[in-house]
């Protein structure tokens, strides 16, 4: 997916610094992330007062029956948005799979475990070499799959709480308090995960806006995803790489 | 100049004297001028009666025995302390449209001595009903009697006498008989009237005395769980009967109780259909939960309660409510399992991630500090994010 922009040197003009960029996320993927971001934030903000309903700040927000109803309505509207996004995501993956075009880059492999161990050794000064990552490193895969299963739990338990009469027709009644506990706890885990892990890696460790711009510079590709960079370069110009 | 203080003292003394004289005159006026014997000379006659304006006969007979045994008779109070304005003989005639009119005219006399209790009745549901034109709504004498008023509390400490307890529901029953009949069948009422149990509530323990509140308001409904909790979270009282004191906590932890207690604190007048204790356990006909016929441990009974608000609830549905139990491996193992899973999952996952992030961050900070100490290790490519290119010594060769 390289977009090689070959420099065109001319005698009279000083060399223009050009930078190759690589597409990292498609427009569709960026839209999906945007939807997820909005829905997740709204769900977290409207869910927290419901979870910490005994706290003074929460009771201030939830003071009247009308406000409780409003908050729950917003929560459910955002939940519908999130569910639609997840359905689209899974549907799109199935569609790609049916055409044998689903990229496997996001699937977890044993190499990710080795990379994680290698990174830990590197951070502990036990090893000099930093692991070299492909298109998605172990941290990014972990983010994806952690939220994949987390959202699965949240959506399933949320639907049980939304339609208790329907679900208790074929499931034991204890599923409702269990779902309530799972929903509120998993939400905290997911929220803490995004704040601690995801925000650290895309904002603090380095500012990585590729999910919004869709692109990474060649320097970033070389630094962060050397294996993928090599692969792309070899694809674009097999002979040059062979030298 | 020097005489002024004396003048002031004289003036004050004079004022004090005047005040004392006025008080004495007032006190003398308050003294009963007419002895009870004088009244009873006529009113001990069982045939003494008067004609009411509606044509009814009103007996004016006062049984001296009954009055002597009443709390006021024992205290030596005089008739004219309540029936003020009746001095000398013959006293002015008394006009009343009917018996009720008579009571309504005379009961205000109670406030001369019992002003605190009287003031509290002004906020009561009975007073509100009377304001709406319900003349039958109780006044002092309807509950306490007029000439046969009982001693209900300990004269020393004001506590309710044990023998007064069963008198209370019987008194309320004079008007609220249907409720009394229900109360008799309840676990509380049966224990009070059959075995004189000192721990069960009488009417006033929930409804209050004198300032009896309208129990049909949204505010009363929201506050009612705290009312029940007053006894049902008291370990000493519940311990005697083997009852759990976790009933309030477990209720508050659940959907319904959460909402009810939230509104109770934040908007006390909010209307809510969320169930409170009495929606499931009953109002005046509260039964033991293991009552074989009406108890909530009978599954159909609980389901019927659920279906009041959740029509179409299946027989599985009542288990959504933990029946005041705290989930454990024996009871509600599914909830307990989820609880236990997260107890391990959260520290392991979030803790592990926190550790990696902390390691990564400290590595970056140390590298930056090292880079500052060695200025010659300049960034290879300015304009790149801090990580890229800075500290080439540590960065593995790329590309």
The helix fraction of chain A, in percent, is: 55-70%
Beta strand count of chain A: 3
How are strands sequenced across the largest beta sheet of chain A? 1-2-3
Largest sheet of chain A: 3 strands, antiparallel
* Averaged pLDDT of chain B: 85
Characterize the overall form of chain A: elongated
Topology readout:
The complex is a heterodimer of chains A (243) and B (399).
Chain A: E1 2-3, E2 21-23, H1 27-51, H2 56-61, H3 65-98, H4 110-123, H5 138-162, H6 164-167, H7 175-204, H8 210-213, E3 215-217, H9 218-224, H10 226-236, H11 238-242
Antiparallel strand pairs in A: 1-2, 2-3
Chain B: H1 4-30, H2 36-43, E1 49-51, E2 57-59, H3 64-69, H4 71-74, H5 79-82, H6 99-106, H7 115-121, H8 125-131, H9 140-144, H10 167-172, H11 177-185, H12 187-195, H13 203-207, H14 218-232, H15 235-239, H16 247-253, H17 255-266, H18 277-281, H19 299-309, H20 333-373
Helix pairs in contact in B: 11-12, 14-17, 16-17
Keywords:
heterodimer, A: 243 residues, mainly alpha, Fumarate Reductase Cytochrome B subunit, three-stranded antiparallel β-sheet, 3 strands, 68% helix, 3% strand, elongated, B: 399 residues, two-stranded antiparallel sheet, 20 helices, 2 strands, 50% helix, disordered C terminus
């Amino acid at each position: 997916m390289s977009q090689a922009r070959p420099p065109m040197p001319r005698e009279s003009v000083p060399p223009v610094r050009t930078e190759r960029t690589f597409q990292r996320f498609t427009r569709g993927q960026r839209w999906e992330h945007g939807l997820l971001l909005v829905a997740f934030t709204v769900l977290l903000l409207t869910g927290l007062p419901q979870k910490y309903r005994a706290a003074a700040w929460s009771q201030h927000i939830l003071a009247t029956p009308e406000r409780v109803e409003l908050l729950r309505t917003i929560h459910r509207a955002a939940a519908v948005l999130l569910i639609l996004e997840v359905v689209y995501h899974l549907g799109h993956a199935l569609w790609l799979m049916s055409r044998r075009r689903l990229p496997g880059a996001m699937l977890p492999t044993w190499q990710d475990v080795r990379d994680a161990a290698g990174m830990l050794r590197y951070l502990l000064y036990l090893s000099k070499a930093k692991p070299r990552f492909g298109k998605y490193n172990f941290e990014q895969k972990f983010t994806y799959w952690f939220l994949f299963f987390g959202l699965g739990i949240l959506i399933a338990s949320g639907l049980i709480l939304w339609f208790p009469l329907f679900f208790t027709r074929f499931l034991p009644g204890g599923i409702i308090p269990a779902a309530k506990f799972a929903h509120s706890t998993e939400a905290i885990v997911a929220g803490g995960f995004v704040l601690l892990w995801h925000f650290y890696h895309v904002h603090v460790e380095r500012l990585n806006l590729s999910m919004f711009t869709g692109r990474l510079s060649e320097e970033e590709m070389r630094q962060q995803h050397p294996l993928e960079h090599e692969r792309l370069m070899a694809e674009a110009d097999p002979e040059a790489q062979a030298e | 100049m020097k005489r002024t203080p004396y003048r002031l003292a004289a003036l004050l003394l004079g004022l004090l004297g005047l005040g004392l004289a006025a008080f004495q005159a007032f006190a003398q006026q308050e003294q009963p001028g007419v002895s009870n014997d004088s009244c009873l000379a006529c009113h001990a006659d069982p045939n003494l009666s008067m004609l009411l304006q509606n044509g009814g006969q009103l007996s004016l007979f006062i049984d001296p025995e009954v009055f002597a045994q009443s709390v006021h008779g024992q205290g030596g109070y005089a008739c004219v302390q309540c029936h003020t304005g009746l001095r000398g003989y013959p006293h002015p005639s008394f006009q009343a449209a009917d018996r009720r009119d008579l009571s309504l005219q005379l009961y205000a006399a109670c406030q001369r001595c019992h002003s605190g209790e009287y003031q509290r009745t002004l906020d009561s549901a009975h007073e509100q009903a009377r304001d709406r034109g319900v003349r039958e709504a109780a006044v002092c004498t309807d509950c306490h009697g007029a000439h046969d008023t009982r001693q209900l509390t300990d004269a020393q400490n004001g506590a309710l006498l044990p023998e007064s307890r069963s008198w209370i529901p019987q008194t309320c029953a004079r008007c609220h008989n249907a409720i009394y009949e229900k109360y008799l069948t309840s676990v509380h009422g049966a224990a009070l009237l059959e075995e004189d149990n000192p721990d069960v509530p009488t009417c006033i323990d929930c409804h209050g005395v004198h300032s009896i509140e309208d129990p049909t308001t949204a505010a009363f409904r929201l506050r009612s769980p705290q009312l029940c909790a007053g006894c049902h979270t008291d370990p000493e009282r519940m311990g005697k009967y083997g009852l759990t004191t976790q009933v309030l906590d477990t209720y508050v932890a659940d959907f319904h109780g959460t909402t009810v207690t939230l509104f109770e604190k934040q908007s006390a007048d909010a209307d809510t259909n969320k169930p409170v204790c009495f929606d499931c356990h009953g109002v005046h006909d509260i039964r033991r939960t293991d009552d074989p016929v009406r108890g909530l441990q009978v599954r159909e009974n609980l389901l019927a309660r659920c279906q009041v608000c959740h029509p179409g609830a299946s027989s599985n549905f009542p288990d959504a409510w933990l029946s005041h139990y705290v989930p454990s491996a024996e009871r509600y193992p599914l909830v307990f399992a989820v609880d236990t899973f997260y107890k391990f999952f959260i520290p392991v996952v979030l803790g592990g991630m926190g550790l990696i992030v902390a390691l990564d961050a400290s590595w970056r900070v140390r590298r930056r500090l090292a880079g500052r100490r060695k200025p010659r290790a300049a960034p290879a490519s300015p304009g790149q994010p801090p990580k890229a290119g800075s500290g080439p010594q540590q960065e593995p060769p790329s590309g």
